[in-house]
Amino acid sequence: MKNISLFIALRYFKSKGQGFISFQSGMALAGIAIGVAILILVTSVMNGFERELKTRILQAIPHASIQGNIHRAEVDDISESLMLNSNVLGAAPYIETQGLLSSGTYLKGVYIFGINPVYEKNVSTIENHFVEGSLDSLQENGYNLVIGDILAIQLDLRVGDSVNILVPETALGLAGILPRTKKFKISGIFSLGAPEIDQSYVYLNTDNASKLLRTGEYVHGIRIRYSNLFNSKSYIKSDLLRINKEFQVNYKASTWETSYGTLFEAIQMERFLVAFMLMTLVLISSYNLMSMLIMTIKEKESQIAILISLGATNRFIKNIFLFFGFLIGLAGVLIGLLIGLLITSYFGTIVSFIESLFGIQFMKVYFIDYFPIDIRGSWIFSICIISFFLASIASVYPAKIASKVEPAEALKYE
Fold first, then answer.
1. Cβ partners under 8 Å of residue 282, min gap 6
2. How confident is the prediction for the chain on average, in pLDDT?
3. Residue 103, strand partner residues
4. What span, in angstroms and rounded, lies between the C-alpha atoms of 337 and 38?
5. Fewer CB within 10 Å, N side or C side of the chain?
């Protein structure tokens, strides 16, 4: 019986009916397909934002840091103590401040980081994103500086050019109170693809930073990289307590969440909300499918009555329309899957074409200047399964209506 029910459902599905019923059937299928396609596209873009935030920004900055005036002689001891935690992958001393970068008539506010290039590689992936030069150029015996590519364009700088750094600490001179300044040479240019960092971060050697800021034999803290950045908050708490107790100090700590936690949470929340709102489109299409099935039952009522008169059971009739709804749902999901994957794969090219055509840039105000795409099989599978489930649920009520058709009433005027 089931095979015959499926056969009849296939005949209904393949039929080229005219009028309202055929239109409703096409709209139901198209609605499901569009909903699935848009869900795949939007979730892939949102997943891309999350991936870029993780791989570009969160991997280029330390996961956590211990802050305090730490004597250089204690840096190695504290680092060794930190390494007792198996989740610590690396530690590096740093000096941090804000200042101005001056080149000719150009002036730009920047974040200045004094680092040890050898240790910095253990806590950051910035070494892998150099366009020119390298992190190793930040040697103690040379006043060298590495900057982002956007900052280099803004100040019209190239490797080998000189630039002045002005820091907020002041000194009393013959002309009064003047900002402290020092000339540095550009020895490297990096490009993380994150404008916030590429136009605002500059790196120099800790010894040069110490001389510039007159911190003497002290650094501002130690940066730490953990095996899992999302557990860094709990890791740093235990590590800080151990360090403070072991060295009889009162250092403080912070994690990446201080600077980028809100942004990451916003992306997570937006992804969920957008997916939820778009899922309502599939839900509406499922309701449209249910309406179409009810209209089909009304149109085929006499045929259903004849089948019942010939001995078809209620279950047999119900299976016909369940299979019919399943087929439309399955076709809509498969078509939406193909369209969604096709558009998502070429979405970057499509956006670039639109931007060049109208002379606009959609992403210029965000932390990356393009639409990242991350197609995840688990998300696509979930979208397809949920969409098919909703379409299947929408077929249950019409199938029950079809199984309750009264042959005498339906055939009264035939």
1. 31, 32, 35, 36, 39, 386, 387, 390, 391
2. 82
3. 106
4. 10
5. C
User: Using CA atoms, how far apart are residues 185 and 193, in angstroms rounded to an integer?
Assistant: 23
Burial bucket for residue 349 (CB in 10 Å: 0-12, 13-18, 19+): exposed
| 120 and 16 housed in the same domain | no
Question: 306 and 330: one domain?
Answer: yes
The range of the structural domain enclosing residue 345 comes to 2-56+263-410
Residues 147 and 77 in one domain: yes
Instruction: Give me the DSSP letters along 138-172.
Output: --TTS-EEEEEHHHHHHTT--TT-EEEEEEEEEEE
**Inter-residue contact 391 to 325 (CB < 8 Å):** yes
Count helices and strands in the chain by DSSP H and E runs: 14, 10
Give the predicted TM-score (pTM) of the model. 0.66
Using alpha carbons, list the distances in angstroms from residue 225 to 84, 118, 228.
Answer: 13, 14, 8
| Tokens of residue 61, six digits | 């900055």
Interval 87-122: pLDDT, tens: 999 999 999 999 999 887 788 899 999 999 889 888
Tokens 């596209």 belong to: 41
Q: Which residue has the tokens 């971060």?
A: 201
Calculate mean pLDDT across residues 201-222. Answer: 90
CA 371 from centre of chain: 10
